[in-house]
């Protein structure tokens, strides 16, 4: 199907928006009137620019407050429409979106609405144009798709049809099932937007919180199937009002948008290489420099890791304990804090994983490698992290020459999850990336109050929980009063006996306040000896409603930006200990204060 | 009255919060449990820290989900309470906030709730403590103040009283009038928060959008009077959950909070020097450097200004046309874009204006001046701009030696308003500052979609509209994809004949797209010749619902950050042409693109 995007979805002026839509591969656009009005390009020039960019203009929108009004207002409205038809003629666009009236003078009379819309359609038809009528979810009288359809049926004019917008339909309680029965040819346009379920005024919900398909909670595949069942063959067009997208790089946003449509189409009629099962974390790679490297090495040693392998040709070290593997890469060109530059996951079928990624606009880039090295291709996640996809087994280890060093294990068995703080503009993009490209599922989104502002967290994982990535973001972009480590990253390792592991560690762990344990005692009926053990080792505790338990501990921040976590999951606990994240943040802040009392930012 | 602040109102860990509250002059705090739990300070240590800082701990909060539960849950809840009483004893705090239950096991039974709360109060009394019961606006069964009061009355225990929170009371439809009739001594605690009127889920409204008194739409003076009428003599305590305050500098936020309380008390029982009437803009001062200075001079000349005065001792120039006065200050120490560093308003009684400012934590700082110069004292607005307050008349001009130059007037008569983009963290603080310190009124807040993100705008003005400042802010803090001139500032001048003025100008004005006029023609029934005139001169147009009209035009950005506007107000138009702001932004962006096509950011 053809793919379109409304210019309102992305930031910038019309030049920016058209360039972004074309670069992301869209076939067409919906031209949002405000973008035209503020543009110095004449309509004919916009037409030419779009043609040059390979974009059709599929819809002009919106035309507001037209129908069911007294005669003198109708006259003015028809005059207003003629002016817009002039603009549309110059643009070469034949369909205009007329959304249901919110005007105080509009009356509650479907016959009148139908008659006046038929009159408008007649005027449009005279100019080779047509009217797509849409029920706004907050329309004064017409606010549901079925009522807009009754009016269009009643008007019975060939130049009058429906515009269906998934948000307006799915945000209301009226079932969309009947859409499949709409007369073929009468759905003139289809607009798609996802959204989280929110309990708020529907207009504000629509204006600020729409998302691209797959980023929210609506059943868009089901909705589109109903529309297709009614014979719709126009474009799938995105119309997403979103506070973040309105102010982030339009080129990035447009690619995110396109990925959402490709993934949606694949859910409706699978055509992409299916996402192979991911079976585990192969390794996690940190970039380190002369300052952060020694800190990380010392921390790993204290965690019971050994430096087991040395890369044949590069200053890259492999550190291991059981199935936990950390790669320290000192071949960085710029000094800076340590960071997770890459992680590798094992895939049942790496080639297919990469084919799927490419089809979803995340093409693999080959790792720079020397002759004889294992071939590893990576895709780039929205935060810039490279994601390597490797076959099961240890082929990638062949690049490392064994050092012969052995670990002094502390019981760390495997990677439980990675924690990656996301750049503010790309949180929803990241969720969609991991879901569509790698086939990971979104887990529940959590919000919590942290010492330096509200946080949002959303994890992605495969069904078997072999690969888990916890994504976090601040609810507001950080300003000057931001924590010194505003975007920390971490690796969490599993153990089956966290107390034994804690006792065996020789690296520093994060001190947990006594107040925390006093509160724990009040909240949960934990036996005194358990509580004493937790307290002694600085182990945090969480319990879910089904009785699942998490015991976990943190290290301080090493190398400027990274830390480690050790988790023991009991009785099927599946979350990530979010309620304890503020405790960690405060403790990391306190540690910084006490080690450097004069530091400015928290 | 004593003034308190809940630790949840400001950002940081407990150390940060206590330091900020003390520095801003608060007498006490409400200790929010989460802040205690994540603190490494033991309760006794917190008690000592507070005492050292001169802060009492007036309330411990919250204790949730206590009342109206089955027996075994009651037992567990009482046990939980005893643990909290232990903590309170160590802290030396005697009152705990118990908020109405949201627990699924809570039953709808006021007698049971009263009996269990009486039992809890008995336990508290045994330890010299007391219970302040509060109806959460979203409580499962108890969600209004009158119901919470019925339960407290029924329980009839001396250690059980009410906590009233202005948000929970005023966000509901139940009238607060009856509060004045509550038995004296039974309101144990008073929490204050303002909020804008929002149509959304009340819990989300409360968690994210509370404001300090005077920053929102609630009638807090009226509310507090009712509480005082019931004999309340405890502290006025702020409890404000706000996404911005949670992540901005706590020291700043605490001062903003304190100012809000001082101003609120003054509205209840006036005690501050009343704000004298402001009668006009005396001058507006720009900092310029070797690069921006010539650009500004050339622009002013083109606007019909003349360089009429030269400062006796400093590289400071006075430019004038009628009552429009611009001061260009080249004595800047750091080069950078031009900016409005100061503006002067005339006051009926400057000394009283300054006394009031000082009482509201905005102390005047004397201008650095040489012997014989006019004395001018300035207060600092939240965005760093100096606000001079001068007597009527031209005393301040005595520092300038006349140059003898005469203007070639273009009809600019006076300053209509200043436009000051505000730093993200300080928008609400700025509104309160201008309102409380200078006595300006808030006009309506407007939100609009602009090319680089959503914008919020709120103007402040005196009743006679002699002094007007339009404050704007982006709804999200700007990121990398931000307009090159992200925080522009401007001065708008009035004319009574904008067409004649436009024809007389010799500086560049901002080109307005033809599309804008085509749309104007569709939106308003403007005569063709009027439209042609507007189009010819690049004059924008707005009309308000009462028929007031604004005709205005903009200049491009000069000196990197500032521009000018010329406005003609007709038939009582009182707004600031906000619907046309996106046209200006797009045109300024376009101008930048065409003059420097390779520039990175918009």
From TrEMBL, chains A, B:
The keyword Membrane does not apply. Its EC number is 4.2.1.118. Keywords: Dioxygenase, Lyase, Metal-binding, Oxidoreductase, Pyruvate. Pathway: Aromatic compound metabolism; 3,4-dihydroxybenzoate biosynthesis. One of its GO terms (biological process) is 3,4-dihydroxybenzoate biosynthetic process. Residues 18-260 form the Xylose isomerase-like TIM barrel domain. Its cofactor is a divalent metal cation. The keyword Repeat does not apply. GO terms for molecular function: 3-dehydroshikimate dehydratase activity; dioxygenase activity; metal ion binding. A divalent metal cation binds at residues 134, 165, 191, 239. Mg(2+) binds at residues 417, 490, 565. It catalyses: 3-dehydroshikimate = 3,4-dihydroxybenzoate + H2O. Pfam families: AP_endonuc_2 (PF01261). It comes from the Bacteria. HAMAP family: DSD. Catalyzes the conversion of 3-dehydroshikimate to protocatechuate (3,4-dihydroxybenzoate), a common intermediate of quinate and shikimate degradation pathways. Belongs to the bacterial two-domain DSD family. This is 3-dehydroshikimate dehydratase. It comes from Actinoplanes utahensis.
């Amino acid at each position: 199907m053809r793919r379109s995007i409304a210019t309102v979805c992305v930031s910038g002026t019309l030049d920016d928006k058209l360039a972004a839509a074309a670069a992301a591969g869209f076939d067409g656009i919906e031209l949002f009137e405000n973008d035209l009005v503020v543009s110095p390009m004449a309509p004919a020039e916009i037409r030419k620019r779009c043609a040059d960019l390979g974009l059709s203009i599929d819809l002009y929108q919106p035309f507001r407050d037209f129908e069911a009004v007294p005669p003198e207002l109708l006259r003015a409205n028809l005059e207003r429409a003629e002016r817009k038809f002039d603009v549309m003629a110059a643009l070469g666009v034949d369909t205009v979106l007329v959304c249901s009236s919110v005007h105080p003078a509009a009356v509650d009379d479907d016959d009148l609405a139908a008659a006046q819309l038929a009159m408008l359609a007649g005027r449009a038809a005279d100019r080779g144009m047509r009217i797509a009528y849409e029920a706004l979810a907050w329309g004064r009288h017409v606010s549901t798709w079925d009522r807009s359809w009754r009016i269009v049926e009643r008007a019975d004019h060939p130049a009058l049809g429906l515009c269906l917008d998934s948000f307006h339909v799915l945000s209301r309680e009226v079932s969309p099932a009947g859409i499949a029965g709409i007369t073929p040819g009468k759905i003139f346009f289809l607009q798609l937007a996802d959204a989280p379920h929110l309990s708020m005024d529907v207009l504000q919900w629509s204006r600020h919180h729409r998302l691209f398909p797959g980023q929210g909670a609506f059943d868009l595949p089901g909705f589109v199937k109903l529309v297709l069942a009614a014979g719709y063959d126009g474009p799938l067009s995105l119309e997403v009002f979103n506070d973040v997208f309105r102010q982030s790089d339009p080129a990035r946003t447009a690619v995110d948008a396109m990925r959402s449509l490709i993934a949606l189409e694949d859910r409706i009629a699978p055509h992409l290489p299916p996402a192979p099962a991911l079976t585990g974390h192969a390794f996690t790679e940190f970039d380190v420099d002369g300052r952060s490297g020694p800190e990380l090495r010392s921390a790993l040693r204290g965690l019971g890791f050994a430096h087991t392998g040395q890369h044949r040709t590069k200053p890259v070290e492999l550190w291991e304990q059981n199935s936990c593997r950390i790669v320290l890469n000192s071949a960085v060109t710029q000094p800076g804090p340590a960071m997770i530059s890459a992680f590798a996951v094992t895939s049942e079928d790496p080639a297919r994983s990469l084919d799927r990624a490419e089809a979803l606009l995340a093409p693999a880039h080959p790792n720079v490698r020397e002759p004889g090295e294992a071939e590893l291709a990576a895709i780039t996640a929205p935060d810039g992290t490279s994601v390597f996809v490797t076959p099961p087994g240890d082929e990638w280890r062949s690049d490392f020459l064994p050092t012969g060093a052995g670990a002094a294990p502390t019981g760390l068995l495997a990677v439980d999850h990675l924690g990656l703080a996301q750049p503010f503009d790309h949180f929803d993009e990241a969720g969609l990336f991991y879901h569509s490209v790698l086939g990971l599922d979104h887990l529940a989104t959590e919000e919590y109050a942290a010492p330096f502002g509200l946080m949002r967290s959303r994890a992605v994982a495969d069904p078997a929980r072999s690969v888990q990535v916890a994504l976090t973001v601040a609810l507001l972009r950080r300003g000057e009063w931001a924590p010194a480590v505003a975007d920390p990253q971490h690796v969490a390792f599993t153990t089956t006996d966290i107390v034994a592991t804690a006792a065996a560690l020789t690296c520093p762990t994060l001190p947990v306040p006594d107040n925390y344990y006093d509160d724990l005692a009040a909240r949960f009926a934990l036996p005194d000896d358990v509580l004493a053990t937790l307290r002694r080792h600085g182990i945090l505790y969480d319990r879910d409603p089904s009785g699942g338990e998490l015991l976990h501990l943190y290290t301080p921040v090493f190398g400027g930006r990274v830390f480690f976590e050790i988790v023991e999951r009991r009785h099927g606990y599946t979350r990530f200990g979010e309620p304890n994240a503020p405790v960690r943040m405060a403790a990391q802040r306190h540690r910084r204060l006490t080690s450097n009392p004069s530091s400015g930012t928290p």
